[in-house]
Amino acid sequence: MKDSTKTLLKLSPLVVPFIFIFLSGIALTAMQSFGIMFYGYKYEDHFFAYKSLFTETWFYHSFALTIFAAFFSSLLAVILGVFISYNIWRLPAGMKKYGIVSRIPLILPHIAAGFIVILFFSRSGIFSSVSTALGATSGMDDFPVILYSRYAFDIILANVYKETPFVIVMIYAVLLKTDSRLITTASMLGASTLRIFFRIILPALMPIINTVFIIIFVYNFGSFEIPYVLGSSKPGLLSIRVYDYFFMKDLSLRPVAMAILMVIFIFSITFVYIYSRLISRIDIMDRKL
Amino acid sequence: MLPPVVLLIYSFAPVWNYPDVIPGKLGSGSFSFVFNQRNDIILSLASSFTYSMAAVIFTIIITILPAQVFARKKFKGRIFLETVLIAPALLPSISYAMGAHYIFIKTGLSDSFIGLVLILSAMSYPYMLRALTAGFIAYGEEYALCSKNLGAGFFTTLFQVELPLLLPSIISGGTVVFLVSFSEYFLVFLIGGGIVPSYSGYLFPFLNSSELSIASLLTLIFLIVPFLLFIVIEIFLTFYYRKRFMQI
Questions:
Q1: What do you get for the CA distance between the two ends of chain B, in Å?
Q2: To which H or E segment does residue B95 belong?
Q3: pLDDT for A175
Q4: Share of chain A above pLDDT 90, in %
Q5: Interchain proximity B3–A116, CB inside 8 Å
Q6: How far from chain centre, in Å, is Cα B210?
Q7: Which distant-in-sequence residues (6+ apart) come within 8 Å of A106 by Cβ?
Q8: Which of A145, A162, A165, B10 has the most C-beta neighbours closer than 10 Å?
Q9: Residues 200-259 of A with CB under 8 A from B
């Protein structure tokens, strides 16, 4: 058998999930957003879904909120994750195994992460009780609005809780390969702790940090489960709008849901592409110096 | 770290209202509820476990040969293809799942166990692909060449030489696929349609309810299953490797 045929054959098992489900899933979402192939509905204006999106303020509101929530969740998760990971790495050998505790949220399903935020941060929740006991707030209404917050703080909290362990695991894997003697040498030469971190460790971690940030950002942007558990006020995140138009509204309005999905999809792809290009640009610039 | 402890306390506290910093009363109400509902709970746990395991097995089957290709053969566009194939895990699953849902309805796969396993595998195969490719790269071609030299056929080489060597990669990829499938709520609910029982589907209504105690206990149960699985895998690996190395 010719070599290339053999290769193709070996690659073929992936055809099922990739082409049959992923590609055609996207294709179908696209088509249905134009009102084609949609349960035999006949639409006069194939662009009606997109028109109704781009002409209404709730869409831009929702889009901005989703970007905001995704960005801050990812940023916080990365900062916290790098910080915790670095400190676990610097622990003396005997104590490192306690770092395992930080991985618990990894096995937590997203809906449970949302639930935990409800338990802790609702106005009748645990932190509220503690803060009243400490005298910082006086009563339920005094506690800041976190759940159903207009700026999606509850969603950000749940995302950070769920994703920081992921960052920790990824960063730790890279740290394990870094020689700790680099730090010893630097501090022997007189560098302060902060300097060591920002000049030696951070640059070494930047590649993995960028990768992780992309993964988390895109995931948060399109994530549905955490916002769904936490409930959102209007206009809410884009994914909740999708749910709304898909399940709660008239079947004839479903193409709007598909249109939002296409926006999410295209934005995600564009983001990954632009971010990756930016990184390689910066890399090249760095090397020229 | 703190939350699981809090969940544990909550399970024992049928009434824990604001502003108590610790529960006012302790009781085992949630435990008796769970015990009474144990049939439903065990059914949904077993179902979730089964479709997650099925997804792991299916992803192994579909990614093992492609992983070998990516690890060993250099061809034009290989990196591009590898990158593109990661897409279903990277990009939001809702964007293609809803389109795929329509296809599944037309092909009769929706509301079925097989359809669910298919969509879960489509969403998580990149993790397994990555793990297996790394595993193939780590072990190099020599073992397979040796066995072919000694006359082994394609399948013998695959099953008796390469798979055992890949065991760590299979486990690492498999844990991710299992976790992702087991914790998934939306896809299960969309494609499974409530016909396929799932623990996440069972748990969900409790999370928005006022029965925080029961919800906490159920969430803890949710955590225990993967945890137990990891322990079982650890024990299995210890004995497996001990046995293998004793034979040398």
A1: 43
A2: helix B93-107
A3: 81
A4: 2
A5: yes
A6: 30
A7: A165, A166, A169, B179
A8: A162
A9: 214-215, 218-219, 221-225, 228-229, 231, 239, 242, 246, 257-258
Average pLDDT in the A121-150 region? Answer: 68
Q: How far, in Å, CA of A233 to CA of A276, rounded?
A: 34
Helix B199-207 vs helix B38-72: angle between axes, to the nearest 10 degrees?
Answer: 120
Asked whether the beta carbons of residue B1 and residue A101 sit closer than 8 angstroms, the reply is yes
- Which among B240, B225, B131, B207 is positioned nearest to A119, based on CA atoms? B207
CB–CB contact A109 B87 (8 Å): no
The first and second tokens of residue B52, run together, are 């997650």
3-class SS of residue B15: strand
**Which residues share a beta bridge with B25?**
B15
Encoded tokens for B201:
């589907």
Q: What angle, 0 to 180 degrees and rounded to 10, lies between the N-to-C axes of helices B199-207 and A110-121?
A: 20
Query: What Rg value do the Cα atoms of chain B yield, rounded?
Result: 22
Q: Does the ipTM exceed 0.85?
A: no
3-state secondary structure B180-191: HHHHCCHHHHHH
Whether A13 contacts chain B with CB within 8 A? yes
DSSP state of A289: -
Residue A162 Cα to chain centre, angstroms:
10
* Residue linked to tokens 């992309």: A214
Domains of chain A: 38-288 (1.10.3720.10)
Q: Give me the domains of chain B, ranges plus CATH numbers.
A: 1-36+209-248 (no CATH), 44-199 (1.10.3720.10)
- Over residues B50-97, the pLDDT tens digits come to 999 999 999 998 888 888 888 887 777 778 888 888 888 888 888 888
Residue spans of alpha helices (H) in B108-162 = 113-139, 142-149, 154-156
